[in-house]
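Instructor's aside before we start: the two examples that follow are unrelated to each other. I chose them only because their records fit on one page, so don't look for a connection. First example below.
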Amino acid sequence: MTSISISIPAYNNESTIVDLIKESKTVLSELTNDYEIVIINDGSSDKTKNLIEEIAKEEHRVQIYNHIENKGFGETIKEVFTLPNKEWIFFIPGDGQIPPVEIKKLLPHIETFDYILGLRKNRQDSLLRKIFSFFYNILISLIATTRIHDVNSVALLKKEILQNVKLNSKSAFIHAEIYLKLLRKGCKIKEVEINHRPRKTGKSGAVKLRVISSTFFDLFLYTIGRL
């Protein structure tokens, strides 16, 4: 029997996190008796912390890690993949755009692959973000010398493959860093199409100048062997 963690980074996700935990529990209970739901709350200023703590009081399978202050994307994603304890880790964002049930499309490939990425089909994002993502994935593909279509997407990975992999990025480049280092390590990687839901509330910060500049700075450091 495979043990599974659904690992969720959360930041000001009070409108989505409760339903996301409920969906995760429903899906995992159908798949295995050995599971956990891990929430890394990155210093949310809304009701996220209170909501997840109330759930954890009733659900022993829900594990919570609270950052007192916002540590940022890179640091939080590192914990998303290192804090869970189960054999396989499925990362999904706290905004609810990736339904937990999409794990069922990735699981059939765990016998053959170590790292399975969800390729967002009919991506429900702004045109600007989709354009930026297209060219960013082309750039990462050139560095990897193999085509990748959605490197910043959700992933199902075998926990043990991150042993002895040092992750240094503090920006959104963290996804690409994981992919590139696992590829270099010889891990077997596959992309599988998944569904993508519209964002319920708020806006993504992925195309903000600060996010873009920090991502490309880390990419530069990686290319010169400093990351």
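Example two begins here.
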Amino acid sequence: MGNDLGLCAASLPVQHLDAEAEGASLPVGLQLMGAAGTDEALMAVVRAVEKVLGRPEPALVAASL
């Protein structure tokens, strides 16, 4: 929706659902949006949020053969 309105946006990976279950897990993200032309300010907010939340472990992807 933000793209249609000309907003800038960034998506941070937050966690993976069922990360402890065997097989594939689903990624969960947090999307932050800012007004058009505020890319630098938005990225500063993104970096601050990432420091608080940390980075999730990579998802396990099950290969289907």
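Strands lie at 8-17, 26-34.
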